Amino acid sequence: MQEGRRTYGVERRSRAFDGVHLTCAEFPSYFQVPDHEHDKFGLMALLRGDLVGQAPWGSIERQPLSVAIDPYNKVRSPKIGPRGMSMLLVEFEPEAMDAAGLSLGQIGEGRVLHNLQATSAVVGLVAGLTEANETLDMWSAAIELACCFTEAQEFPAKTPPWLRTAREMIHTCFAEPMSLATVAREVGVDATHLARRFRFHFGMSVGRYIQEIRLAEATRLFVDRSMPISEAAIAAGFSDHAHFTRLFRRRFGATPSSLQTLSGGSVLGLKDLPR
């Protein structure tokens, strides 16, 4: 937590670029954060642990990797729970908001998100804080996270029920061998029709969506549950450790092991897979 640029927890790493400030910090169990307020608009991702009592971003029951709006110029003093807490704070200067065409009116206040798009953006930003990362477009990842809050609802109003069923099937069976044809057959539509409608409504192909979920789940397993990376990769549906590492590096610009180094093996906590 910060007042200006003060961090009350243990700052693991920070970075600033083009009007965006990132801070990854950890807090001890039962730590009472002093009264403070932020002088910038920000988003706070709960990476691991607990919050006790009221806080501007919502309930203490937030799931790991959920993201909440952290409004500025409002006093708060949350208390950390028994497991301690790790968090990523993403703060935006006004010029960064202007450059992205975002306004506080579009984003609103008091919302908490826990979905695949927000999770991917958070994992990318944490990966971007590792020394190994030289390729990720950090500014775009931060803006992508902010844009998650401009979406009016989880499903577009006209998303057909069969397409929602297809997405739920992917979330349930992602670790199993799965193809576009398999999903289409299960929901009773042509594979080409499924491919077109899925991309239109959810912004990516079926194959890419499955890959994103597998990346998130493997990360949860090797960090939150301390599972060996090789075992986590297999459990999440990848063919082997090398396959997972290659796709992770391509997606986030860093290796899974570099996240372990940054976090001490515990910063990311994806206890429940976001949808």
Descriptive overview:
- The chain is α+β, with helices and mostly antiparallel strands and 275 residues long.
- Among the domains are: 10-150, Sandwich (Jelly Rolls); 161-203.
- It is 41% helix and 17% strand.
- It has eleven helices and six strands.
- The protein has helices at residues 94-100, 104-107, 116-128, 138-147, 161-173, 180-187, 191-202, 206-224, 229-235, 241-252, 256-263; strands at residues 10-17, 20-27, 41-52, 67-70, 79-92, 112-113.
- The chain has a six-stranded antiparallel beta sheet with strand order 1-2-5-3-4-6.
- Strand 1 (10-17) and strand 2 (20-27) form a beta hairpin.
- Helix 3 (116-128) runs antiparallel to helix 4 and helix 8 (206-224) packs antiparallel against helix 9 (229-235).
Radius of gyration: 19 Å
* Strand numbers in spatial order across the main sheet: 1-2-5-3-4-6
CATH class of the domain at 10-150: Mainly Beta
CATH architecture of the domain at 10-150: Sandwich
Helical residue percent band? 40-55%
Mean pLDDT: 79
Task: Describe this structure in a few short sentences.
The chain is of the alpha+beta class and 275 residues long.
Name its key features.
Jelly Rolls, 275 residues, disordered N terminus, six-stranded antiparallel beta sheet, 6 strands, 17% strand, alpha+beta, disordered C terminus
Secondary-structure map with pairings?
Layout: E1 10-17, E2 20-27, E3 41-52, E4 67-70, E5 79-92, H1 94-100, H2 104-107, E6 112-113, H3 116-128, H4 138-147, H5 161-173, H6 180-187, H7 191-202, H8 206-224, H9 229-235, H10 241-252, H11 256-263
Antiparallel strand pairs: 1-2, 2-5, 3-4, 3-5, 4-6
Helix pairs in contact: 3-4, 5-6, 8-9, 9-10
